[in-house]
Amino acid sequence: MRLKTYGTRGSTPVSRAETRCYGGNTTCIRIMSNCLPRDSALVIDAGTGLVPASLDLFNEGVQHLVLLMTHYHHDHTQGLPLARHTFEKSVPIDMYGPHEHGIGPMEMLRTLMSAPFFPVDFSRVASHFNCHDLEAIGRHLLMVHPQRGARLLRVDEYEQILTQTARIPSAEQVLQDESLVVHMHKTVHPEYTVSYRFEERTSGKVAVVLTDHENTVNLPKDLRMHIDGANLLIQDAQYTRAQYQTTTSGFGHATGEYAARVMKECNVGRLGLTHHDPMSDDSIVNSIVDEARSWLIANGAPELADHVFACADYQEIEV
Length: 319
Ligand SMILES: [Zn+2]
Ligand SMILES: [Zn+2]
Description:
25% of the residues lie in helices and 26% in strands.
């Protein structure tokens, strides 16, 4: 399993010399796995990074796009109106996202692509979008199989598949063993926001994307279980400790030190920091990495310090 981070900036895109190292596209991450159907692509979030991602997918001849939305803040949706695949009606897009207060993926798209915000109304491109509401995050998971594609399952249905003990594996167990299983968990953020955990059953590799998540005093047990044992954790670390202590507490984002604590408590292999603040030059992003590493060294996990890095736009990461 590999990830490609097409957008690693939070809040708003930036472009200036001082942000050249990490880049300025907002959140968009592609998940690449042998468990995905041939000619299909799996992408988390549709920030401005979706625009170049969509170009790559088009050049690769991708015929089906699965888009998982964490939530609908602008920095996670603004690539949609201008991504090539939005207008590529021959390529179906299955979009999954939280549904709260009457707003799910379909309602978000109708608003995003409507006057006076955008000149092309969503109704003109809606025919190849299939929207799926995630109304009960934590009660469902997504199973993606190379031949069967993606389907939503209830967690209790999935647990039944896992606990079947017949000598000959059931058809469902075989499918599960060949799948990419995507678990979901709610983050701590002003809107209903989803963290996705990707379990590649064929390799045993696990990657978790936890963005738009604020520092918590204690790490809730269920969130710890959601992250536990991940080979790779991509986590929001928008702020320095000083910024968080003086002005940004309550904004829904985390610090490098908190991400380091999550890494240690959840037995994570590697930690990639993301959702860089638009005001952060590359040097500030580097200082957030230093804060995370220093926390690990000071808190009995120096061996993890070398496994912390800041994600950059267009970076490919082996899980
Ligand atoms: Zn964001
Ligand atoms: Zn947000």
